[in-house]
Amino acid sequence: MDAVLILRIVLIAWTLVFLVYMIKDCMAHKEDFDGKHMIALAIIGAITNFLDTLGIGSFATTQAGFKFTKSSPDAIMPGTLNVGDTVPVVLEAVLFFGAIELDPILLVGFLAAAVIGAVIGAGIVVKWPVKIVRIALGAALLILAIIMFCRQLGVGPFGATGTITTLAKLGMVKFVIGLVVNFVLGALMTIGVGLYAPCMALIGALGMNIGAAFPIMMGSCAFLMPSAGIKFVKEGKYDRKASIMLSIFGAIGVLIAYYIVKSLPLTILTYVVIVVMIFTSITFFYDASKSVADVKE
């Protein structure tokens, strides 16, 4: 039995446990399913998770959708995002685990680092000023996006886009650096910093095949979210109706995007990633400036 198959089995089994908690809780609160905003929630789930599969992320876009349609309350939004997007993200991971030939040691190593980071590193990272974290990540993403763009064009000393998919070619030094960074990214998820774009930047900076970012970043989140989701379900701190709609239609959005992404040539995919990184960098800077304004107020 290969490592990818084992990862899929473990992930699916844990997600089924999460679904038991979620479905049982929803059945006990049938009164929450009143039929309002169902179409809006279905569209939000499909579109945001379509974008999530492209590496853009779904949390920010889902929040925007909720606010625009006034379809889910702000007070329980964190729980709604974690519970509602668990199934789509797990589906992404299961699909992308086999989308590229990647050394199992690299894949398992990066996933483990993110999970350990979320469990152990959270206590450290939550003490960091969110404003500083956002500015640092915004600057890092912007710089790395420029480097990746130069690699695509063969400009300067950066060379061509990376093609590494094995530990032997990556080397232990870069591997350890990658593990440390993904450890930190896993920890940053606990304060609401998305892992997708920074992880793509990491993969590109290490000279790895950019396609490898998809199973790594999606797998990292997928192993974390069922645990977080169960906690929110137990506490009842989530929108049940919105979460069900995100789960169902989000999965549909993932399937549509998966076949589009899978068919894209590596060059086009790399440019998509660069655009995503620049966009995410801008949002980090914007959120940082907004946090300053909130403090002043």
What labels describe this entry?
297 residues, mainly alpha, 13 helices, 0% strand, globular
Q: What report would you give on this structure?
A:
This protein is mainly α. The protein has one domain (3-296). 76% of the residues lie in helices and 0% in strands. The chain has helices spanning 3-28, 38-53, 59-69, 77-84, 86-96, 104-125, 130-153, 167-170, 172-188, 196-205, 213-235, 240-263, 266-296. Helix 10 runs antiparallel to helix 11.
Short account of what is shown:
It is built from 13 helices and no strands.
Please describe the topology of this protein.
Elements: H1 3-28, H2 38-53, H3 59-69, H4 77-84, H5 86-96, H6 104-125, H7 130-153, H8 167-170, H9 172-188, H10 196-205, H11 213-235, H12 240-263, H13 266-296
Helix pairs in contact: 1-5, 1-11, 2-3, 2-12, 4-11, 4-12, 5-11, 5-12, 6-9, 6-11, 7-10, 7-13, 9-10, 10-11, 10-13
Instruction: Give the number of DSSP strands.
Output: 0
Residue-averaged pLDDT = 84
Low-confidence stretches: none
Which class of secondary structure composition applies to the elements? mainly alpha
**Overall structural domain count:** 1
Estimated share of beta-strand residues? under 5%
